[in-house]
Amino acid sequence: MKMADAKQKRNEQLKRWIGSETDLEPPVVKRQKTKVKFDDGAVFLAACSSGDTDEVLKLLHRGADINYANVDGLTALHQACIDDNVDWVKFLVENGANINQPDNEGWIPLHAAASCGYLDIAEFLIGQGAHVGAVNSEGDTPLDIAEEEAMEELLQNEVNRQGVDIEAARKEEERIMLRDARQWLNSGHINDVRHAKSGGTALHVAAAKGYTGVLKLLIQAGL
């Protein structure tokens, strides 16, 4: 039940881009001749959503960021995976898209492909170096959220082939935060950077995820 609720919540988030900054018509001119200028990243995502490869290549040539993310942290590659558009996935990766960029919930594109059951996309991403041991904010790897047998088999075989320690991967974030918190406490210098989109701090993350050891050290360090 927990996984079903999580997937439902996730599916709602993945579709929120509709009507948001990524789902925009090209800039228009008002009667007062005032031009409406949209964020370059939003224009890029809109071009990707429309499937206009020529326009996307032009935007990239002009300096557009292929890894630009919307308010939910979704990139064009995330969206192509959600849309089951393997050709667009390949196009984006071939042009430099980061296959392991997480969204605001820690989902990399492989999480999206695994959740949706898109085997061909998952195989391609893995072949390009996608992290099968990537853990999202709920502590789930792509294997954890896969429901179709073929997808589970693909991911399990890759986990075994790479020798990925899933339990160690789940604890990696807490381990890194403990290390950083100890360094801050010992040095007296705190280097805590807020998340660019959510504004969250290490204290927020530790509290939300129940990292009590990290919380104790952060408070001792003065956060």
TrEMBL record:
Q: Which Pfam families match?
A: Ank, Ank_2
The protein's superkingdom reads Eukaryota
Which residue spans traverse the membrane? none
Q: Which SMART domains match?
A: ANK
Q: Which GO terms describe its molecular function?
A: enzyme inhibitor activity; phosphatase regulator activity
Q: GO CC terms for this protein? A: A band; Z disc
Keywords tagged on the record: ANK repeat, Repeat
Q: Does the keyword Zinc apply?
A: no
Q: What protein name applies here?
A: Macaca fascicularis brain cDNA clone: QmoA-11976, similar to human protein phosphatase 1, regulatory (inhibitor) subunit12A (PPP1R12A), mRNA, RefSeq: NM_002480.1
Native species of this protein? Macaca fascicularis (Crab-eating macaque)
